[in-house]
Write a structure and sequence with these properties.
Strand content: 15-25%
CATH class: Alpha Beta
Order of helices and strands: HEHHHEHHEEEHEHEHEHEHEHH
CATH topology: TIM Barrel
Oligomer: single chain
Helix content: 40-55%
Low-confidence stretches: none
Number of domains: 1
Mean pLDDT: 97
Number of helices: 13
Radius of gyration: 19 Å
Length: 335
């Protein structure tokens, strides 16, 4: 078993998942503005450190994706953030793309940038303690999209990124996100997501990426948020499993789903059903941002010094998702 495969499995084994705390300063500012907390470096650090030092980290969180600002910050106990995360039994990770920009040749679509200078940045992040990285490609569904151009360009970028990350002894999270925004049906989501994932693996193989040393972070198969058709959680789970079985090579050790705009309970319930039906060898876990943090953030905003109360809410959500990652969750366990 390679060291990269070891890291990937350690992050996701025994129901553990990934806390996506890699919001850029702009996104974090929007989140804090929404709950009326000033977005200062100190407040951003305080909220994140509150989560990173919660007891639920040790039991439920195998990896934390950080943002460039956060990986360089020092906690109130004077250890670096990667040291704090490691002490809690979790692996520090880092978002390395520089964001989705307009795709030349298709103005309504996006291409993720950040390959220039990436090799040097990866070396720096590795020295800071990062064990894994994240890069997100985004695709929208409509009558004409995602276009062939968008599918090919983003797959190529994800593959080049992954090859560089493995060269630097870290595990790449490959995140091709087909957005749930729109009027599309679940069937269209299934077809487009399958096409996107297959193309990503085609490129990963061309770029000689070791598939045993990656984590796939896909969307679940959902009808668009403006669609007249909404499918049951049961159908979400079955379609998502079918898509992955037909699109993902068996060497990949694990899948960590993004929540992609689902509510906290919805993201947990869908993950639980996927695991109840899971007849593959893939570990099926979570890599949630809002679906792990939203309730904790709302509570914390009322009194940012109430660390214990905020951690209690975060611990509950983390525990619910760990149970879901083992197919052991039920609605009765929610408070």
């Amino acid at each position: 078993m390679s060291e990269l495969n070891n890291i990937a499995i350690r992050i996701l084994e025994n129901g553990k998942g990934i806390l996506a705390a890699d919001e850029s300063t702009g996104t974090m500012t929007k989140r804090l503005d929404a709950v009326k907390v000033p977005s200062t470096p100190e407040n951003r650090l305080l909220f994140r450190e509150t989560l990173f030092s919660a007891s639920g980290m040790t039991e439920c969180i195998g990896g934390v994706i950080l943002y460039d600002e956060t990986i360089k910050q020092v906690s109130s106990k004077k250890n670096t953030i990667p040291e704090l995360i490691t002490k809690m039994g979790s692996a520090p990770g880092i978002k390395v793309d520089t964001g989705a920009k307009t795709l030349a040749g298709s103005a309504d679509e996006k291409i993720t940038e950040g390959l220039d200078g990436l090799r040097e940045r990866l070396k720096e992040y590795y020295k800071l303690g990062a064990k894994f990285t994240k890069w997100r490609g985004v695709y929208s569904i409509s009558k004409n999209y995602p276009s062939r151009l968008s599918i090919h360009a983003n797959a190529h970028a994800l593959a080049r990124y992954s090859a560089l990350v493995q060269e630097c002894k870290m595990v790449p999270i490959v995140e091709p996100e087909v957005l749930m925004d729109g009027e599309h049906s679940a069937k269209e989501c299934y077809e487009k997501t399958s096409e996107v994932i297959k193309k990503c693996f085609e490129e990963l193989i061309i770029h000689k990426v070791d598939l045993k040393g990656i984590i796939l972070k896909p969307n679940m198969i959902l009808a668009g948020n403006k669609s007249k058709e909404q499918i049951s959680n049961d159908e979400v789970a079955k379609l998502t499993l079918k898509c992955l079985k037909n699109s993902v090579p068996s060497e990949v050790p694990g899948v960590a789903f993004l929540s992609g705009g689902q509510s906290e309970i919805e993201a947990t319930e869908n993950l639980d059903l996927i695991n109840k039906y899971n007849d593959t060898n893939f570990i099926m876990s979570f890599s949630y941002g809002r679906a792990l943090q939203q309730s904790a953030l709302k509570f914390w905003s009322q009194n940012i010094q109430n660390i214990e109360g905020t951690q209690k809410i975060f611990n509950h959500r983390a525990k619910m998702n760990t149970l879901a990652a083992q197919g052991k969750w039920s609605k009765d366990l929610e408070i």
